[in-house]
Amino acid sequence: MKKKLQIVKKKPVKYTLIVIGLLLLVLISNLYLQWCQNELSLDLVVKFAFSWHTEKFILGSLVLLIFLLFLCSLAGSLVLGSLLYTITIGILGFADYQKMFYRSEPIYPDDLKMITEFGLLREMIGTIPFLFILLVAVIGLFFFGRAIYKSRLLSKKMQIIRISGFILTLLLLIYVSNFNSQNNLLRKAYDRTALWIPYSQKMNYYNTGFMGGFLYNLKVEAMDKPENYSKKTIEEITNKYTDKIKETNTSSQEEQPNIIFVMSESFSDPQNLTGVTADKDPLKDYYDIAKTTYSGKMLSQNYGGGTANIEFEALTSFSMELFNPQMTTPYTMLIPKMTEIPSIVSLLKGQDYQATAIHPYNTSMYKRKDVYKTVGFDQFISEDTMTYKEKLQKNPFISDESAYKEVLDLLENDDDPQFVHLVTMQTHMPYSDKYTKSDYSSQSLGNKTAIDSYMQDVAYSSEALKQFTTALKDVKRRTLVVFWGDHLPSIYSDEIKAENDEVRMHETEFLMYDNQDKLSGKNTHDALSSPFYFAPTLFDQSGMQMTGFYQLLTELEKQVPAFEKGFYYKDNQWSKTLSLNESQKELYEDYRLIQYDIVSGESYSLNTNFFK
Question: What is the pLDDT, as a whole number, of residue 251?
Answer without folding.
Answer: 47
